Amino acid sequence: MKKLVILIFLSVSFFETPVFADFYARNVSNEYYYYYGQVLKLDSKVEVYGLLYQESINLKLKLGPYNLWDWESQKYVLTYPPAGKYEFIWNFTLPKDAIIKDLRVWNSSTGTFIETVVIDLTTGESKYNPNAVNGPNVILKQYMRRDYNGNYNLQYELRISPVNWDESAEFIMDLVSPCIASYEKRQVGVMADLFSPYHPDDGAYVNAPTNISAIDYNNQQSQPQYYSGSNFNWSFNNGFWNTSAKGYNNTSTIYFPAESSSGKFLRTSTDDVLKFYQLATKPQIPAELRYPRKIIVACDLINSSYGTPVRSTFIDIIKQALSISTTDQDSLMFVTSDFNVHWLNNSFQKRTDQLINSQMDIVNSIVPKLNTLPYMLKEIVQVLNSKNTDAEVWLISDDNQTGVRAETVMDLLNQTYYSAKNKIVFNILDASQGYYGYYIQNVYYLGNGYLYQNLTRLSGGNSGSLYNKYYINYIDEALDTFAPRVTTVEIDPAPASGFTYSRIDLNQGRNNFNLTSRYYQIGILQGTLPIDINYYGNYLNNYYFNDIKITEDNVNVSDSLLQNTSLFWYGNYILNDLFLQPQSFSTINYIESLSVKKHIVTPYSAFVIPAPDGYTGFVRVYEDQIKIPVNIDKKDITKPLPTQISLVSYPNPFNPSTIISIKLTSEASNGKKSLDIYNIIGQKVKSFDLSPYLNSTEFTVRWNALNDFGKQVASGIYIAVLRTNNAVKTVKLQLIR
Questions:
Q1: Which structural domain range is residue 534 located in?
Q2: For the segment 103-129, what is each residue's pLDDT rounded down to a tens digit?
Q3: Which of 50, 436, 648, 729 is 20 to 30 A from 297 (CA-CA)?
Q4: For residue 368, is it within any domain?
């Protein structure tokens, strides 16, 4: 039966890249593959505290029937997998920062869950037996892959064997991941549905719904929200909010309130050696720095809806953003599209919430047939020229066709920015959803991207886009566009005595923070509390510094949740620091030791059942094993190597391929010879056929960094081993991708 790879994508904004899972089962006796699973139970328990959350996924799965078309009877026939024992296999990815904390597998003979142990990968693979009669046998491995940009991504493989064709497999997997900060809330990605195999809805089976139990220990009485805003039936029982959802993607992202209403959060925890902290803070921009401004709010909105929200809901979001982004020191004018450009007030008026609400209500009530964007921009500049004043222009537009030609954009810039007598700063929120794409000077733009990029770049303003964003995040995009912000931000947490180090920022690469945005960080603390946050950045083109006082949160949570800070720190340190270093003997040895001690799966370690008898540590990779890979007969090493035999690689280090030059004596050229490539822990990854080189004393072999299965091997150190009748020769190869 041909293997069909079925991917389940969670296409939500929470994940930087799509995550997927592929399930199939292999009959251990005849290599028959089966792809249909029936979910008997799928539970997710989400526990949120501070900047991190833990999800416990409980999946119970058996092989499910499917409807197969029978040509003789001309109808669908319910078909079951062939009898026998199977190996259940999941290949999956997780969000980049997710760490697998634990794995437990159900043992039907004892009626209990068995805890996996973490051991080095070589020992783990030797202990795992997919064809065993008795079980469970379990292994969870991690792979490191690199994309065409050279960036690595992680993939996982979970195998459980043996499972009888009419019985089930069940496991509980604990994951730890950082929350994503957004306006007054934290986003949490629920990954349970990843492990539910796809099955066509043909009525042959019924999948159990996804049951979610969720709790935010910072706000225990606050009900979670789904990203879609749908009104799921949440109930509060046994200390958790509970709901049930059917189908895929319904449980992709849920929202919880911010970890602290003050915008300041700190919690410390200690493992056996180190003291860790997690903290969050807003920039806390002082009121005296909020200088008075003149602002024109320009609305060019012709749509009746903007993705999920209808026009009125979208306008309410803009109202909220305007209210937060302005103060009573500011003065505002409003202009909107009608059949023509329509000014709602002819002079700047003092900013009040009443003014914002009344003027935006008029914008909501006027739904023009056409955008007037180019005329609006030109008229705004003319009005400001007539008033002879500086101003900011805050533009919200769903126009998507004005800036698709470079010559049109240049003409419009000449009639707007270059025609202004005074300083105008353009802040633009693109609400067009980016339906139209085009190239200008070999750069791809969506909607009016080229026009907006030039207007904001020249004027020193900001731009944002609602394209590919869920409406619950529209407020974040609007605030990033309009609200005062501190750029190029860095923070230095300074304890009362001592220092902090090995800090990890959880801000998804951003370093610009508006006055509502919180900076997330975890790290190691050496010293005593309290901690002062030295907040550095650039505000209004001037150096910004703020000394933010912060005290420790005292919410009562379990030690297990507090330990997640150190677990996440160690996992991040291994994957984003140690694995970026050259994979020397000492580095690999250290990664193995650390992963076993901290119970973390890495490309060099695995979760395994059964554990070796009396197992207390890990199998070390000794330095002499690197010099001569395993499986080489040591008696060969003691033999003197003929000086005429040579094994050289060039280039070395290499990427993407290297030439291995071989020189042999006449005696060696006539006999049996082989060339194999081993990785740093002695596993053979590539074998070359040298039979065409019979009687050849000099020849070359090219290695393109592929293994025997035609797949790319990871960066690192490899050993090329040449064997002849009377000698063994090795050379170290270094692959750098």
A1: 264-285+485-552
A2: 999 998 889 999 999 888 888 888 888
A3: 436
A4: yes
